[in-house]
Design brief:
Layout: H1 2-7, H2 10-35, H3 42-77, H4 82-92, H5 94-119
Length: about 120
């Protein structure tokens, strides 16, 4: 699992992970608030969806940066083999996939918290 973290590029993976984990921490705080029968603040609800969305967006942004770098290398070298190109594109997919996973966790948490809040 950690090799994907390195292959996806440390700056992009760290940024995406920080936003995603921040969303998950906000979700846990909101759940703890609900368990204690306290109302969930709008800030916590908003932060879950916004931070999860930023996590997905940063994954896509880092993929665009990776593809740009691949294209710059191809332009410089002239020709490149298909397996090398496929490997480069495959590596650019790691960060947005990780961002989508974190986004999915955040948005499902947000939905469950929202449903439980509205139910009251």
């Amino acid at each position: 699992m950690m090799h994907y973290f390195y292959e996806g590029g440390m700056p992009g993976m760290i940024t995406t992970t920080l936003f995603g984990l921040s969303a998950i921490v906000s979700a846990v705080m909101a759940l703890l608030s609900q368990i204690k029968s306290k109302p969930v603040s709008k800030f916590h609800l908003s932060s879950i969806s916004i931070l999860g969305s930023i996590s997905l967006f940063t994954g896509l942004l880092w993929q665009a940066i990776g593809i740009y770098q691949i294209l710059a290398i191809i332009q410089e070298m002239g020709e490149i083999s298909k397996p090398v190109l496929a490997a480069g594109i495959k590596m650019t997919m790691i960060t947005p996939i990780w961002g989508a996973i974190l986004f999915s966790i955040a948005i499902i948490s947000w939905l469950l918290i929202k449903l439980k809040t509205v139910k009251a």
